[in-house]
Every structure is written in structure tokens, then in C-alpha cells.
Design brief:
Length: 73
């Protein structure tokens, strides 16, 4: 199935990559991000859930130590 690039979320891809590269358990990542369950982390990892932009931003900043303005699109 061909994916339409106009609906592609670069932030979501960056968050999924950060989760995959982190190496910690879903529970530890959820604890670091705060306010999310380990199920949410697992679902984002497996692309079964698309978080809100605010939650995705919290994930990105917690896991990479960078702000969104540092994200290259």
C-alpha cells in the first residue's frame, strides 16, 4: 500500500525512532515522559497509536534531550 507523504508525521517518526533507540523498557520510558502509560509507549512503538502533538513533543524532548526547534524536517 502506498503511503501519502502529505499526511506523513515527521514528529511521530522521530518519536518512534527515539523509543526504538532508547533501549529502556516501556515502563521506564513512560515514567521518564510522565503522564502516559506503558501501553501508550508500546502502541506508539508498534505504530498502533498516534499521540497528540503535545504528547509527542513531550516524548521527543524527554527521550532526546532536544527541543522541537532542533528537529530537522
Amino acid at each position: 500500500m502506498k503511503q501519502d507523504n502529505k499526511n506523513k508525521s515527521y514528529l511521530l517518526e522521530a518519536v518512534q525512532l527515539a523509543i526504538l533507540m532508547d533501549g529502556r523498557s516501556d515502563f521506564e520510558i513512560a515514567k521518564e515522559v510522565g503522564g502516559v502509560s506503558e501501553g501508550t509507549v508500546a502502541n506508539i512503538r508498534l505504530a498502533k497509536h498516534v499521540p497528540s502533538v503535545v504528547v509527542a513533543e513531550r516524548f521527543y524532548e524527554a527521550l532526546t534531550g532536544e527541543t522541537l526547534k532542533d528537529l530537522e524536517l
